[in-house]
Design a protein that fits this description.
Layout lengths: L1 H10 L8 H23 L3 E6 L8 H9 L1 H4 L3 E5 L4 H9 L5 E6 H9 L4 E6 L6 E6 L7 H6 L3 E4 L4 H12 L8 E4 L2 H10 L3 E6 L2 H5 L5 E5 L10 E6 H6 L1 H18 L4 H11 L7 H15 L17
Parallel strand pairs: 1-2, 1-3, 6-7, 6-8
Antiparallel strand pairs: 3-10, 4-10, 5-8, 5-9
Helix pairs in contact: 3-12, 3-13, 13-14
Protein backbone atom coordinates (compact mmCIF):
# COMPACT_ATOMS: atom_id res chain seq x y z
CA UNK A 1 0.00 0.00 0.00
CA UNK A 2 2.84 2.35 0.83
CA UNK A 3 4.60 1.55 -2.39
CA UNK A 4 1.46 2.22 -4.39
CA UNK A 5 0.91 5.51 -2.66
CA UNK A 6 4.47 6.57 -3.39
CA UNK A 7 4.11 5.67 -7.05
CA UNK A 8 0.82 7.59 -7.40
CA UNK A 9 2.33 10.60 -5.69
CA UNK A 10 5.25 10.61 -8.09
CA UNK A 11 2.90 10.34 -11.08
CA UNK A 12 1.10 13.51 -9.92
CA UNK A 13 4.27 15.55 -10.07
CA UNK A 14 5.71 17.41 -13.05
CA UNK A 15 9.20 16.78 -14.33
CA UNK A 16 10.39 19.74 -12.29
CA UNK A 17 9.19 18.05 -9.16
CA UNK A 18 6.30 20.48 -8.53
CA UNK A 19 3.00 18.76 -7.67
CA UNK A 20 0.58 18.90 -10.60
CA UNK A 21 -2.22 20.25 -8.43
CA UNK A 22 -0.01 23.14 -7.35
CA UNK A 23 0.93 23.83 -10.95
CA UNK A 24 -2.73 23.95 -11.99
CA UNK A 25 -3.54 26.33 -9.15
CA UNK A 26 -0.65 28.59 -10.15
CA UNK A 27 -1.75 28.69 -13.77
CA UNK A 28 -5.30 29.54 -12.72
CA UNK A 29 -4.07 32.43 -10.55
CA UNK A 30 -1.80 33.68 -13.34
CA UNK A 31 -4.62 33.69 -15.88
CA UNK A 32 -6.90 35.50 -13.45
CA UNK A 33 -4.25 38.15 -12.82
CA UNK A 34 -3.66 38.65 -16.54
CA UNK A 35 -7.40 39.01 -17.11
CA UNK A 36 -7.73 41.65 -14.41
CA UNK A 37 -4.67 43.50 -15.74
CA UNK A 38 -6.03 43.57 -19.30
CA UNK A 39 -9.44 44.65 -18.07
CA UNK A 40 -7.90 47.56 -16.20
CA UNK A 41 -5.75 48.74 -19.11
CA UNK A 42 -7.42 47.81 -22.36
CA UNK A 43 -11.13 47.80 -21.69
CA UNK A 44 -11.69 51.25 -20.19
CA UNK A 45 -15.22 52.51 -20.64
CA UNK A 46 -15.25 54.98 -23.55
CA UNK A 47 -15.42 58.63 -22.53
CA UNK A 48 -17.54 60.05 -25.34
CA UNK A 49 -17.24 63.73 -26.26
CA UNK A 50 -19.67 65.58 -28.53
CA UNK A 51 -18.49 68.90 -29.95
CA UNK A 52 -20.66 71.84 -30.87
CA UNK A 53 -19.92 71.96 -34.57
CA UNK A 54 -18.15 70.59 -37.61
CA UNK A 55 -14.31 70.55 -37.57
CA UNK A 56 -12.72 73.88 -36.62
CA UNK A 57 -9.35 75.18 -35.51
CA UNK A 58 -10.81 75.78 -32.02
CA UNK A 59 -11.27 72.03 -31.63
CA UNK A 60 -7.49 71.74 -31.28
CA UNK A 61 -7.63 71.40 -27.48
CA UNK A 62 -9.53 68.12 -27.87
CA UNK A 63 -7.72 66.51 -30.79
CA UNK A 64 -4.18 67.46 -29.73
CA UNK A 65 -4.34 65.65 -26.35
CA UNK A 66 -5.80 62.64 -28.13
CA UNK A 67 -2.96 62.62 -30.66
CA UNK A 68 -0.28 63.13 -28.00
CA UNK A 69 -1.75 60.38 -25.86
CA UNK A 70 -2.40 62.62 -22.85
CA UNK A 71 -5.91 61.26 -22.33
CA UNK A 72 -4.75 57.67 -22.81
CA UNK A 73 -1.91 58.10 -20.29
CA UNK A 74 -4.54 59.13 -17.74
CA UNK A 75 -6.56 55.98 -18.44
CA UNK A 76 -9.19 57.66 -20.61
CA UNK A 77 -10.49 56.23 -23.87
CA UNK A 78 -11.70 59.54 -25.34
CA UNK A 79 -13.89 59.32 -28.43
CA UNK A 80 -14.67 62.65 -30.13
CA UNK A 81 -17.62 63.33 -32.43
CA UNK A 82 -18.49 66.51 -34.32
CA UNK A 83 -21.77 68.32 -33.66
CA UNK A 84 -24.56 70.35 -35.19
CA UNK A 85 -24.94 73.13 -32.62
CA UNK A 86 -24.78 73.78 -28.88
CA UNK A 87 -28.50 73.20 -28.34
CA UNK A 88 -28.46 69.77 -30.00
CA UNK A 89 -25.29 68.69 -28.16
CA UNK A 90 -26.71 69.87 -24.83
CA UNK A 91 -29.70 67.57 -25.27
CA UNK A 92 -27.50 64.61 -26.24
CA UNK A 93 -25.28 65.09 -23.19
CA UNK A 94 -28.31 65.51 -20.96
CA UNK A 95 -29.80 62.29 -22.31
CA UNK A 96 -26.63 60.42 -21.37
CA UNK A 97 -25.48 59.69 -24.92
CA UNK A 98 -22.22 61.54 -24.27
CA UNK A 99 -20.15 62.23 -21.18
CA UNK A 100 -19.00 65.68 -22.29
CA UNK A 101 -20.16 68.47 -24.57
CA UNK A 102 -17.23 70.50 -25.91
CA UNK A 103 -17.22 74.22 -26.83
CA UNK A 104 -20.87 74.47 -25.78
CA UNK A 105 -22.40 77.91 -25.38
CA UNK A 106 -23.02 78.06 -21.65
CA UNK A 107 -26.21 80.02 -22.19
CA UNK A 108 -27.57 76.84 -23.82
CA UNK A 109 -26.90 75.05 -20.54
CA UNK A 110 -29.03 77.53 -18.61
CA UNK A 111 -31.77 77.19 -21.21
CA UNK A 112 -31.55 73.39 -21.09
CA UNK A 113 -31.74 73.20 -17.31
CA UNK A 114 -34.79 75.46 -17.36
CA UNK A 115 -36.42 72.78 -19.51
CA UNK A 116 -35.39 69.94 -17.21
CA UNK A 117 -32.27 68.76 -19.07
CA UNK A 118 -29.83 67.44 -16.40
CA UNK A 119 -26.66 69.17 -17.59
CA UNK A 120 -24.05 71.24 -15.78
CA UNK A 121 -21.14 73.41 -16.91
CA UNK A 122 -17.75 72.29 -15.55
CA UNK A 123 -15.33 74.69 -17.27
CA UNK A 124 -15.45 77.95 -19.22
CA UNK A 125 -12.97 77.93 -22.10
CA UNK A 126 -13.82 81.46 -23.23
CA UNK A 127 -14.98 84.16 -20.83
CA UNK A 128 -16.98 86.22 -23.29
CA UNK A 129 -19.66 85.00 -25.65
CA UNK A 130 -18.56 84.59 -29.27
CA UNK A 131 -22.13 84.92 -30.63
CA UNK A 132 -22.86 87.82 -32.92
CA UNK A 133 -23.99 89.31 -36.22
CA UNK A 134 -21.59 89.21 -39.17
CA UNK A 135 -22.17 92.01 -41.67
CA UNK A 136 -20.38 93.52 -44.72
CA UNK A 137 -17.45 95.75 -43.80
CA UNK A 138 -18.41 98.20 -46.54
CA UNK A 139 -21.93 98.75 -45.16
CA UNK A 140 -20.99 101.25 -42.47
CA UNK A 141 -23.47 99.64 -40.07
CA UNK A 142 -22.66 99.63 -36.37
CA UNK A 143 -25.82 98.51 -34.54
CA UNK A 144 -28.90 96.29 -34.75
CA UNK A 145 -30.96 99.40 -35.40
CA UNK A 146 -28.74 100.13 -38.42
CA UNK A 147 -29.51 96.64 -39.79
CA UNK A 148 -33.24 97.24 -39.50
CA UNK A 149 -33.18 100.81 -40.83
CA UNK A 150 -31.20 99.66 -43.87
CA UNK A 151 -33.72 96.90 -44.62
CA UNK A 152 -31.03 94.22 -44.33
CA UNK A 153 -32.05 90.59 -44.35
CA UNK A 154 -31.00 89.00 -41.07
CA UNK A 155 -30.20 85.33 -41.67
CA UNK A 156 -31.11 83.16 -38.69
CA UNK A 157 -30.95 79.38 -38.34
CA UNK A 158 -34.21 78.06 -36.79
CA UNK A 159 -34.21 76.38 -33.37
CA UNK A 160 -30.81 77.68 -32.31
CA UNK A 161 -29.70 79.86 -29.43
CA UNK A 162 -29.63 82.80 -31.87
CA UNK A 163 -33.36 82.49 -32.51
CA UNK A 164 -34.24 82.53 -28.83
CA UNK A 165 -32.08 85.60 -28.18
CA UNK A 166 -33.53 87.79 -30.94
CA UNK A 167 -36.31 89.45 -28.87
CA UNK A 168 -33.88 90.47 -26.12
CA UNK A 169 -31.29 91.71 -28.61
CA UNK A 170 -33.76 93.90 -30.49
CA UNK A 171 -35.16 95.32 -27.26
CA UNK A 172 -31.73 96.20 -25.89
CA UNK A 173 -30.66 97.58 -29.27
CA UNK A 174 -33.66 99.89 -29.48
CA UNK A 175 -34.84 98.30 -32.74
CA UNK A 176 -38.36 97.28 -33.74
CA UNK A 177 -38.27 93.54 -34.31
CA UNK A 178 -41.58 93.62 -36.18
CA UNK A 179 -39.89 95.71 -38.89
CA UNK A 180 -36.85 93.45 -39.19
CA UNK A 181 -36.44 91.13 -42.17
CA UNK A 182 -35.66 87.89 -40.35
CA UNK A 183 -34.99 85.06 -42.81
CA UNK A 184 -34.73 81.43 -41.72
CA UNK A 185 -31.77 79.71 -43.40
CA UNK A 186 -30.45 76.23 -42.68
CA UNK A 187 -26.89 75.87 -41.50
CA UNK A 188 -25.45 74.34 -44.73
CA UNK A 189 -26.69 77.23 -46.88
CA UNK A 190 -26.07 80.08 -44.46
CA UNK A 191 -22.60 81.20 -45.55
CA UNK A 192 -23.31 80.88 -49.29
CA UNK A 193 -26.56 82.83 -48.87
CA UNK A 194 -24.79 85.59 -46.98
CA UNK A 195 -21.90 86.07 -49.40
CA UNK A 196 -24.28 86.05 -52.38
CA UNK A 197 -25.98 89.18 -51.06
CA UNK A 198 -24.57 92.61 -50.29
CA UNK A 199 -27.41 93.68 -48.02
CA UNK A 200 -27.62 90.90 -45.45
CA UNK A 201 -26.53 90.05 -41.94
CA UNK A 202 -25.71 86.56 -40.64
CA UNK A 203 -26.11 85.34 -37.08
CA UNK A 204 -23.07 83.24 -36.24
CA UNK A 205 -19.98 83.22 -34.02
CA UNK A 206 -16.43 84.50 -34.34
CA UNK A 207 -15.57 81.55 -36.58
CA UNK A 208 -17.99 83.00 -39.13
CA UNK A 209 -15.45 85.69 -40.03
CA UNK A 210 -12.79 83.40 -41.59
CA UNK A 211 -15.56 81.54 -43.43
CA UNK A 212 -16.59 84.63 -45.41
CA UNK A 213 -13.59 86.96 -45.29
CA UNK A 214 -12.03 86.05 -48.63
CA UNK A 215 -15.33 86.39 -50.51
CA UNK A 216 -17.03 89.22 -48.63
CA UNK A 217 -14.86 91.19 -46.15
CA UNK A 218 -16.94 91.43 -43.00
CA UNK A 219 -17.09 92.60 -39.40
CA UNK A 220 -18.86 91.10 -36.39
CA UNK A 221 -21.08 92.79 -33.83
CA UNK A 222 -20.89 90.52 -30.80
CA UNK A 223 -24.11 90.21 -28.84
CA UNK A 224 -22.23 91.32 -25.74
CA UNK A 225 -21.06 94.48 -27.51
CA UNK A 226 -24.68 95.06 -28.53
CA UNK A 227 -25.58 95.07 -24.84
CA UNK A 228 -26.59 91.47 -24.12
CA UNK A 229 -24.18 89.98 -21.59
CA UNK A 230 -23.81 86.24 -22.06
CA UNK A 231 -21.44 83.55 -20.79
CA UNK A 232 -18.87 82.12 -23.19
CA UNK A 233 -18.50 78.50 -24.19
CA UNK A 234 -16.95 75.60 -22.34
CA UNK A 235 -17.34 72.03 -21.18
CA UNK A 236 -20.61 70.54 -20.01
CA UNK A 237 -21.55 67.16 -18.59
CA UNK A 238 -24.53 65.42 -17.06
CA UNK A 239 -25.36 64.62 -13.47
CA UNK A 240 -24.80 60.90 -14.02
CA UNK A 241 -21.15 61.44 -15.01
CA UNK A 242 -20.61 63.75 -12.03
CA UNK A 243 -21.95 61.04 -9.72
CA UNK A 244 -20.56 57.89 -11.31
CA UNK A 245 -17.34 58.97 -13.07
CA UNK A 246 -15.96 61.91 -11.07
CA UNK A 247 -12.31 60.87 -11.47
CA UNK A 248 -12.63 60.51 -15.26
CA UNK A 249 -14.37 63.87 -15.43
CA UNK A 250 -11.65 65.55 -13.38
CA UNK A 251 -8.92 64.04 -15.54
CA UNK A 252 -10.60 65.10 -18.78
CA UNK A 253 -11.15 68.71 -17.68
CA UNK A 254 -7.60 69.04 -16.33
CA UNK A 255 -5.97 67.64 -19.48
CA UNK A 256 -8.15 69.70 -21.83
CA UNK A 257 -7.33 72.94 -19.98
CA UNK A 258 -3.67 71.95 -20.10
CA UNK A 259 -4.04 71.64 -23.87
CA UNK A 260 -5.58 75.13 -24.13
CA UNK A 261 -2.60 76.62 -22.31
CA UNK A 262 -0.15 74.58 -24.38
CA UNK A 263 -1.70 75.66 -27.68
CA UNK A 264 -1.66 79.33 -26.74
CA UNK A 265 2.01 79.06 -25.83
CA UNK A 266 2.90 79.43 -29.54
CA UNK A 267 1.65 75.96 -30.52
CA UNK A 268 -1.39 77.05 -32.52
CA UNK A 269 -0.07 75.46 -35.71
CA UNK A 270 0.55 72.13 -33.99
CA UNK A 271 -2.96 72.24 -32.58
CA UNK A 272 -4.61 72.80 -35.94
CA UNK A 273 -2.49 70.09 -37.52
CA UNK A 274 -3.95 67.68 -34.95
CA UNK A 275 -7.46 68.68 -36.03
CA UNK A 276 -6.61 68.14 -39.70
CA UNK A 277 -5.07 64.75 -38.93
CA UNK A 278 -8.12 63.66 -36.94
CA UNK A 279 -10.56 65.06 -39.52
CA UNK A 280 -8.86 64.76 -42.95
CA UNK A 281 -12.18 65.35 -44.72
CA UNK A 282 -13.16 68.24 -42.47
CA UNK A 283 -12.02 70.99 -44.87
CA UNK A 284 -9.95 72.71 -42.17
CA UNK A 285 -7.27 74.91 -43.76
CA UNK A 286 -4.14 75.23 -41.62
CA UNK A 287 -3.74 79.00 -41.98
CA UNK A 288 -7.45 79.65 -41.35
CA UNK A 289 -7.43 77.41 -38.30
CA UNK A 290 -4.43 79.19 -36.82
CA UNK A 291 -6.02 82.60 -37.48
CA UNK A 292 -9.22 81.42 -35.80
CA UNK A 293 -7.34 80.36 -32.68
CA UNK A 294 -5.67 83.76 -32.56
CA UNK A 295 -9.05 85.44 -33.00
CA UNK A 296 -10.32 83.69 -29.88
CA UNK A 297 -7.22 84.22 -27.78
CA UNK A 298 -8.28 87.58 -26.21
CA UNK A 299 -11.47 86.07 -24.79
CA UNK A 300 -9.97 82.83 -23.45
CA UNK A 301 -8.67 84.84 -20.53
CA UNK A 302 -9.78 88.26 -19.29
CA UNK A 303 -9.65 90.30 -16.10
CA UNK A 304 -12.46 88.25 -14.53
CA UNK A 305 -10.16 85.23 -14.07
CA UNK A 306 -6.89 87.04 -13.32
CA UNK A 307 -4.77 84.78 -11.16
CA UNK A 308 -7.06 81.82 -11.79
CA UNK A 309 -6.46 78.76 -13.99
CA UNK A 310 -7.79 78.49 -17.53
CA UNK A 311 -11.33 77.15 -17.44
CA UNK A 312 -12.25 78.91 -14.19
CA UNK A 313 -15.87 80.05 -14.06
CA UNK A 314 -16.26 83.32 -12.13
CA UNK A 315 -19.54 83.86 -10.30
CA UNK A 316 -19.80 87.37 -11.74
CA UNK A 317 -18.39 89.13 -14.80
Amino acid sequence: MGLLATKETNMCRTRSGIPLSAMRAGVTLLLAALFLLSAGRGNAEPFRVKLEWLPLGIHAWYHLPNEKGWYKEAGLDVQIEDGTGSTATTLLVGNGNFAIGGNIGLSAVASGRAKGVPVKAVAAIIQKSDLGFVYPKSSGWKSIKDFVDAGAEILVTPETIHTSLMPALFKIGGADMSKAKLVNVGTPAKVSTYVAKTNSVMTTTLFGIPAVETTLPSLILLYEDAGLILPGFGLITNESVIKNRPDDLRKFVTITMKAVDYIYNNHEKEGVQAVIKARPDGKVVLADGVNLLKLYRPIVRDESIAGKPTGFMPLKK
